[in-house]
């Protein structure tokens, strides 16, 4: 059966297959392959088949159906669904049933998509390898001894292994783009404010965005058409009057005339040789199409990780204060009084990385350190954003690696948090600046591990970003390769 | 910017964070925090005099609407995930023993 989301949708609408058949075929593949990959934390077969039958009935009756009618998709498990569990891969929320659907889930279901399961992730999206999940291990479908990247590693592995047609992830410091790169798929982090965060479990509120993780650029545009837009329930989602949502499919196959690409030569030097080479070859594809390169400097880019680990942890320390063992989530059976309900519940149920980030953030916000850490980081954030403003005055987009390496081995970085943080060196600045960024497949290293090209553009120009990505995809076949599993 | 973070500071931050740490965790976190904070020291290389702090990248405004009640979660929905409850209330151990004057 054809397997991109758009191909499946078109085939269902042409009545050459049904949604029930599509859902069935993905569950059959899941039954065979999921025990190896471990991409899903939960499957929702009953819900999925009921939805598929409803959509098939609509199509049979000749009714108008949505843009994703009948297409089986997966959702990262930090996005609330009012069916099944929403665990954030944490013991804290292992049995949590969200009382409502996230805005993006409402949008997907209104577009007649079929949600087939919830995917694994780093606990509360804190990690770069999906290894901090307290509930399950996910492997990279290209090499099962390696990590899928993170934190949206389950969504990336599910898409790469053909366990769903497309997926949603969330990206606070690279959590969509980095696993997309490690697993050889397409991942898009939209502009901050483009997609509602309502019902997405917060980690770093000023940085988090939900976005598509797909097999190709067309599917990313298709999913963006469904999830982008203002939501009155998220005050950080941008109103139409400020930045109208585009039809991301309409002009997708039209190349950008006179494309100008900014590159930062000294930044790319920090990546492995195979990654540098693949990125250079990808950029050469664009120049062969007539694009012009502009070398620029981004003097504050190198400060992004330090800035991020102050701001993101500060926001996390506040956001995770709500896990008190009282209202929902884990409660320690060992607590003897009210204070211990709070402290023992948190201590017993949070993993090491979550504790580390809560404490770092608490420290950065604490009396005597606030100015030195938090305020300083907010100022540097402004300098980093200015680097991007300057870049987009000179060029339409920036291109650079997504990650300095390809997928690393399980356990390779788990004992050294700082080394794990440094894996996000190319992705984090994008979140601090609030701009959109994308990972597209651009090659493989000598171990047959995928490499991603990162394309970054100005705020609210996802339409152009997707068109730029599509220019490369039309000339190459990297996105068509599949892991043998 | 202060750097090295010793074990007593780790214990203090843990307490502020409502986390109880084992002695092993205290030792481990103390070493890791020192390495991370040393890395964060990099920020001091930059002169940020006169730079405005940036908390949000898109302009943030208060969003107002008419003060008309809209449907919200029922008590039953709000309590559905409670670890412990009594009737329409969340239930916790009593607090009076520890904190006088409440």
Walk me through what this model shows:
- The complex is a heterodimer of chains A (485) and B (102).
- Chain A has 485 residues and is an alpha/beta fold.
- In chain A, 39% of the residues lie in helices and 12% in strands.
- Chain A has helices at residues 5-13, 19-37, 45-60, 103-110, 153-160, 177-183, 217-227, 265-268, 273-288, 304-319, 338-349, 352-365, 370-394, 417-422, 428-433, 462-475; strands at 40-43, 72-76, 114-119, 166-171, 186-189, 209-214, 260-263, 292-295, 397-401, 437-444, 450-457.
- An 11-stranded mixed β-sheet of chain A has the order 1-3-2-4-6-5-10-11-9-7-8, with helices on both faces.
- In chain A, strand 2, helix 4 and strand 3 form a beta-alpha-beta unit.
- In chain A, helix 5 (153-160) packs parallel to helix 6 (177-183), helix 7 (217-227) packs antiparallel against helix 16 and helix 10 (304-319) packs across helix 12.
- Chain B is mainly alpha-helical and 102 residues long.
- Chain B has a domain at 7-45: Histone, subunit A (Orthogonal Bundle), CATH 1.10.20.
- Chain B contains 3 helices and 2 strands, in the order αααββ.
- Chain B has a two-stranded antiparallel ribbon with strand order 1-2.
- In chain B, strand 1 and strand 2 form a beta hairpin.
- In chain B, helix 1 (7-16) crosses helix 2.
- The interface between A and B is large, with 73 and 55 residues.
């Amino acid at each position: 059966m054809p397997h991109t989301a758009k191909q499946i949708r078109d085939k269902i609408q042409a009545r050459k297959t049904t949604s029930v058949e599509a859902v069935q075929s993905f569950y059959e593949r899941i039954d065979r392959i999921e025990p190896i990959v471990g991409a899903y934390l939960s499957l929702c077969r009953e819900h999925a088949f009921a939805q598929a039958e409803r959509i098939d009935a609509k199509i049979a009756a000749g009714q108008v159906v949505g843009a994703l009618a009948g297409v089986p998709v997966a959702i990262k498990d930090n996005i609330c669904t009012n069916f099944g569990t929403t665990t954030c891969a944490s013991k804290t929320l292992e049995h949590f049933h969200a009382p409502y659907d996230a805005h993006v889930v409402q949008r997907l279901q209104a577009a007649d998509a079929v949600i087939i399961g919830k995917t694994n992730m780093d606990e509360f999206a804190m990690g770069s390898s999906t290894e901090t999940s307290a509930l399950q291990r996910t492997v990279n479908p290209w090499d099962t001894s390696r990590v899928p990247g993170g934190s949206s590693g389950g969504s990336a592995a599910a898409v790469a292994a053909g366990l769903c047609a497309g997926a949603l992830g969330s990206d606070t410091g690279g959590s969509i783009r980095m696993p997309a790169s490690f697993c050889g798929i397409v991942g898009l982090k939209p502009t901050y404010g483009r997609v509602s965060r309502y019902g997405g479990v917060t980690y770093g509120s000023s940085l988090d965005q939900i976005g598509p993780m797909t097999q190709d650029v067309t599917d990313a545009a298709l999913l963006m058409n469904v999830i982008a837009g203002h939501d009155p329930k998220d005050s950080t989602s941008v109103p139409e009057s400020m930045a109208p949502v585009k039809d991301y499919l309409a002009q997708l196959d039209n190349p950008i005339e006179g494309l100008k690409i900014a590159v930062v030569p000294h930044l790319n030097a920090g990546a492995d040789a195979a990654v540098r080479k693949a990125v250079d070859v990808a950029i050469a594809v664009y120049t062969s199409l007539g694009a012009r390169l502009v070398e620029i400097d981004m003097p504050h880019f190198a400060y992004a990780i330090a800035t991020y680990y102050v701001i993101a942890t500060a926001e996390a320390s506040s956001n995770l204060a709500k896990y008190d063992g009282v209202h929902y989530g884990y409660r320690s059976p060992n607590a003897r009084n009210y204070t211990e309900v709070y402290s023992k519940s948190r201590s017993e149920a949070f993993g090491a990385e979550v504790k580390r980030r809560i404490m770092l953030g608490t420290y950065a916000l604490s009396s005597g350190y606030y100015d030195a850490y938090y305020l300083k980081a907010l100022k540097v954030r402004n300098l980093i954003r200015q680097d991007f403003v300057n870049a987009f005055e000179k060029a339409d987009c920036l291109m650079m690696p997504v990650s300095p390496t390809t997928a690393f081995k399980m356990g390779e970085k788990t004992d050294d948090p700082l080394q794990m943080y440094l894996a996000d060196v190319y992705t984090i600045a994008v979140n601090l600046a609030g701009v959109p960024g994308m990972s597209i497949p651009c090659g493989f290293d000598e171990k047959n591990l995928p490499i991603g090209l990162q394309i970054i553009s100005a705020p609210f120009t996802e339409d152009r970003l997707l068109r730029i990505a599509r220019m490369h995809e039309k000339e190459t076949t990297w996105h068509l390769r599949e892991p043998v599993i | 910017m202060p750097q090295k973070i010793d074990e007593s500071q780790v214990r203090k931050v843990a307490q502020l964070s409502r986390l109880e740490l084992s002695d092993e965790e205290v030792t481990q976190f103390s070493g890791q925090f020192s390495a991370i904070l040393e890395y964060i020291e990099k920020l001091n290389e930059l002169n940020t005099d006169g730079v405005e702090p940036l908390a949000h990248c898109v302009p943030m405004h208060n969003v107002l609407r008419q003060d008309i009640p809209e449907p919200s979660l029922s008590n039953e929905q709000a309590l559905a995930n409670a670890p412990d409850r009594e009737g329409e209330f969340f239930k916790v151990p009593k607090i009076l023993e520890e904190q006088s004057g409440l």
